[in-house]
Amino acid sequence: MENWGCILYRETALLIEPGQSSKAKRTQVALTVAHELAHQWFGNLVTMEWWTGLWLNEGFAHFMEYDAVDHIFPEWNMWENFVQEVTLDSAFREDALLRFSYSNAVTIDLWEALEEASDLPLSAMMNTWTKQTGFPVVTLSRTPDGALSLAQTRFFSDPSVVDPDDSRWDLPLTAQVGHGSGGGGGPELHRVGIWTASDLPARDAAFEVHAPTSVGSKFPSDSPWIKLNGLQQGFYIDNYDADGWLRLQSPCQQLVLSEVDRMCLLDNAFVLTRAGKLDLANALEFSSAFANDPSYLIWKSLSTHLTFYGNLIHQTPTFPKASRVTSDLRAVIFRVVATHLQGQVYDQLRTLYESSDLAELKNDCLGGMGAVQTKWNDTLEWALSGKVRSQDIQYAFAGVVRSGIEGADFAWAFIQANWDRLNDKYIPNKVHGIINLKEKLNEKQVGSLVCLAIGRFQSENKAVEVEAFLGDKKTTAYKRRLDTTLEGIRIKAACFRRDATHLDQWLTAQTL
């Protein structure tokens, strides 16, 4: 917590053990420390006037944590994870921070400071981002006569939702454009300009890029391929028609596009598929362009997205087909769902937990213990026995849940059977009739276990079951997280209904 002059950290967010802590853990600790230190300026030196401006505190602290860690550890290449670096030094030092030191600021104060520093009309553009919800999907299509058109809509992860506000954003349009017969001569970065909300046509109408518009430039329609949002300079998801996705396979396969552009294309393809905006077959076909990609970030992204579908079809006849594909790709695509350890190893993990002083190692032990199916009940009972700190019990539950849908079912059943026991452990009794001020915080810890367990579910029946059990329970402190988790279950259920058959057909068609 970023108290001025008295920053407080959890042990696992502050301490590492040289030679034992993983790179991921070292990175997490460095970012957390830098984030809280950044709040001494963004939040403490200058404080938002009211909670509606909380993003000023958190947004810039989040940005500065990457900037600081990149400065201290340049070999970590932090901006590859953050995607895009922006220089705001003069606006911060000479305007916003000095002008509002030891005072309060609102969002418009930032825009005015940036306008003065850049001499650009930023307020109108940024209002489209801070005064409405969500972010856009921009789709590039080719008309039958070869012309290019753009369409902008609000992104929803649930394809059944319709935007009630017909939202539009001011967008900086850039594109990486290929040239030459095979498209291997690119890319060339085209900066088109700002696509303003006032320039947008009515819903579903084409924005003709090849014709003169207020955007002030054109995309070359004769280019072999066009990748929108070049160098990821805009906060939007870029989408394409089927022909556009097909054209982009070559520059990805030939490594013509940058690592960041390739990674974001891959992410976008599967995010759009889950949202029902892109056929799964197109996304899977597009992913084949990365079979020989040397980038760790690409394989991490590919593994994450394909694991989602692996979990989705884990209990269906389609899964063996997916397993054969994964072996051909060196077992990187799907993560191992369950690790079956022998009893002797299980005992060693528990002994190591009890003897270690390193919090990260202890939590890893809990995760490993949770992966042993025959010991699931022993693991959760032991976690509640008092030998595991209350704040770390979640790691034991996470280990069980990560073992697959069977583990999630077991964890959820355990929570239901031990509901009163869990609440007694996390929520202190009232003292002399006065509600303990920590009650709501601890109620959130129970909610974390609930959402962790049910987050793996993917059927409407399970969502209804959860709602029925929690209907008369106190869930106020984590209602938003619970609602989001239940929505995620229903989105996965819809995804399964929509894509399971297509996935089976695509896998069947592959040469195994």
From TrEMBL:
Matching Pfam families: ERAP1_C (PF11838), Peptidase_M1 (PF01433)
Keyword Hydrolase: yes
GO cellular component: cytoplasm; extracellular space; membrane
Molecular-function annotations in GO: metalloaminopeptidase activity; peptide binding; zinc ion binding
Domain Peptidase M1 membrane alanine aminopeptidase: 1-96
Cofactor: Zn(2+)
Hydrolase is among the record's keywords: yes
Gene3D superfamilies linked: 1.25.50.20, 2.60.40.1910, Neutral Protease Domain 2
Coiled-coil regions listed in the entry: none
Keywords: Aminopeptidase, Hydrolase, Metal-binding, Metalloprotease, Protease, Zinc
Segments forming domain ERAP1-like C-terminal: 225-317, 323-490
GO biological process, one term: peptide catabolic process
Classification via InterPro entries: ERAP1-like_C_dom, Peptidase_M1, Peptidase_M1_aminopeptidases, Peptidase_M1_dom, Peptidase_M4/M1_CTD_sf
Similarity-based family: Belongs to the peptidase M1 family.
Protein name: Peptidase M1 membrane alanine aminopeptidase domain-containing protein
Protein source organism: Aphanomyces astaci
Taxonomic lineage of the native organism: Eukaryota, Sar, Stramenopiles, Oomycota, Saprolegniomycetes
